[in-house]
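Newbie here. two chains, one complex. Structure please?
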Amino acid sequence: MLNTILQLAVSGAALGFVYALVGIEYSLIWNATGLLNFSHDKIITLGAYVAAGLFFTKMGLPIPVSFILSIVVMILVGFLMATVVLNPLRKMTTIFTIMGTILFGKMIYELIRLLYGSAPFTVPGLMTGTVHIGSLVIAKSNVYIIVIAVIVVAALQIFMQTTKTGKAMRCVQQNKKASELMGINVKQNIRITAAISSVICLIIGFMVIPLYTVSLSMASMIGLKGFAAGVVGGFGFLPGCIVGGIVVGLIESASVLVIPSVYKDAVAFLVLIIFLLIKPTGILGKKS
Amino acid sequence: MLSIKSIDTYYGEVQALMDVSVEIGEKEIVAIIGSNGAGKSTLMKSIMGLVHPAKGTIEFKGEVISSLNTWDVVKKGVIYIPEGREVFPELSVLENLEMGAYSKKYSAKELKGKLDMAYDLFPRLKERQKQKAGSLSGGEQQMLAIARGLMSDPKLLMCDEPSLGLAPVIVDEMFDTIVRVNQEMKIPIIVVEQNAYMALTISQKAFVMENGRVVQSGDSQELISSPEIKKAYLGG
């Protein structure tokens, strides 16, 4: 029993970190532009396809090289998204901005389908195997996810707190007019934010390949659950995304102890609804 | 130094500035006075490129700046301290000041020098440098806004309603500081004010705006004693 609980805790934490990164990835865009990026799950999918489909499977490059080249591609995707969708739309009425990001996602989706077809595929040997600690058996993919996610979160924090561009990103979040008056190129800053968000999407897409295989719908569920994580932790607040993600991941993982595992996917949304009803600001959220 | 030549500025269909021309010389304090909605802030926003004039040009040191983006105007050394302070509430006082120097590539030593200057001007800010700017009082936020504006070594400073919502004793302190900055840094300062008496007292030159037009301009001392100005802006 103890082993089961520990195993569920590890896989729950790993899932939780995935949700946390999803929360962070769309919160960055929300904070910088006030727009909800409805294309984010498609960008996660694109990241997985570019890294695993294009560079690894098609071109036969080693995984680390594929990953680094994919970062370059995703930075360009972020710039493109900021230039054609986020910057032109952010001052418009909500309905245009919603449609804009949805359609951008739709274009990415159709592009992937045209280029790769709709058959899912796997990456043999990517983050497979298990680790044994005593009688406890943990999938290596879970360990990788947790380690990579912690590194990403730490790197993002250091970037936002210490670099000039990172500080400027925090200014743009808080007051765009004052940022411009400091000499910050707000449009450029939003492009950089979108690029960082896209790279995080790539990392998410890459990490979940062992869990979900590479398929067109691989990210739709984590996209929604990551949104739930953000709300549970505190919307638009990066530490909140981490707390919310881990809470949702652990509850979801533990739920199989008491309910049939086919209902597992509903748990995150149940938690979301409960939080919206009793504490809409989230665990760490501030009153606005 | 700054010359605004008959600009028209619109917000959508609404014309906010009509044929406005203003000249600012070296080292002087210039007051722009007028009631609410007269177009004072729109004039400032037009200079900063926050809105672009539909007609006319704005030249700074002989260069046309009226079509530049705000951040490029800032790089030319034109600094605007907006109405309502607009500090970054979630950043500390120190970080706010550092952001004031964003457009400059200072070495660590130069930055330290600028910070010392800011703290010398407003010692209160030094005491509160670790505090979040959002937790400061209105007067302290105004001090921070001015200090932040000075961090980038401006060539022209524009203060929009520095006295708005402040206690009278703090208002005096603000205006004293503006005069001090003008004398010590030897830069021209534009003061936009509804508090016409104060603005006219510290300035050498003034422009009076009404309904988007400059209706009167001249020597501040003369304006302060002109019967029309007295009646309209100085309470009789």
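Moderator note: The longest helix of chain B spans residues 168-185. Chain B touches chain A at residues 48, 50, 69-71, 74-75, 79-80, 82, 86-91, 95, 98-100, 102-103, 148, 152 (CB under 8 Å). Thread marked as resolved.
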